[in-house]
């Protein structure tokens, strides 16, 4: 379906935290791109809710400045900017207070463009701290602003552990049904992650070798060159395990390891999520001494200086996981993520086993294991690493070679930004790319014993210098298994 043909239903899109960094840097640029592609129908309104003392005109000016900063220059179009800003409204409201909610009620109920008795589809995006999710939902319910057509979007983190996650989910679940709750993980909106499903299940040659007989191990890396920046207050309470592993990296692991769903798309919204849940439940638990052997906790050396005080919060995590099922028995999954590393890179490496017999004992050169590299950033795409014969006369000279697929080069179309895609799915009411409650809680259930062991054993993060590959202990984690991290795939 081409972009202009994708018709979205008119809605009232309310953003709690409408002047915050997430709204201005990701959400509103994502909505602008839909406007630019003429996918926002007439009658759609965008209502920013925050404590900022802004009227509609002031909010429109603020958003316009943000769009000029965060949208590519060649995508800025006067007509699209005018159409989007005409949809914008701002409501000054302290969501922690009981005052002022009647104004939101009036704004959402006042729809002179709709027939009497016809309710607009309402989307409530909670870009605020998770402790406010429950109170906001209760207020919306008290005002009669929750109908069967409503949806609520929850930004991570959803709690800080399993117990608090359940509390948040219980609070939201008292007001909204599970089918109305969209827990967002922007990694699931990346083009390369979407293509992982297609690569696996629409290409018959991969499925016979996507198992423990042929796969040696899997590496998942999300590396950042930046430090904590202005997120220091949040990050120091969370750390890399909560901030990245519990959601992003485990979701990527699930997509690599899941069984084929019966169907993807259409009305089968839970087929993919059912299979991901099975993977999370099949993860071998890490507890006690297993945590010491299978995890690395690191921190870059200037972290405390950036914060302004000493801290034991980890900025780097590497770990070894296993999926205990028929397909993946004995195949290790190595996960790592960190800040202030040598490169900005998000990749999945599926490393295959060596050929069962050396066919070219007298050849020159070296062979390397076949690998499938899935790049999420930078330059989304895939590489298949093979061994080939170096051209020329004489004997056989073996040489590594790669088949390279870049989405930007292969398709003459811009890849949507993750939030752009996910916001569109919220408006369509398609939950496939969003986390279900049982997924979130299964992930917390696996991560929590690691956190507990680090705390109980007083595990201090090992230090690493900014601009490096991370702590040496992460290299030793793989070296014990006779393996190494794959670096610099491009």
From TrEMBL:
HAMAP family reported for this sequence: G6PD
Stretches assigned to coiled coil: none
Name this protein carries in UniProt: Glucose-6-phosphate 1-dehydrogenase
Gene field: zwf
Domain Glucose-6-phosphate dehydrogenase C-terminal: 197-486
PROSITE patterns (alphabetical): G6P_DEHYDROGENASE (PS00069)
SUPFAM superfamilies reported in the protein's UniProt record: Glyceraldehyde-3-phosphate dehydrogenase-like, C-terminal domain (SSF55347), NAD(P)-binding Rossmann-fold domains (SSF51735)
Catalysed reactions listed for this entry: D-glucose 6-phosphate + NADP(+) = 6-phospho-D-glucono-1,5-lactone + NADPH + H(+)
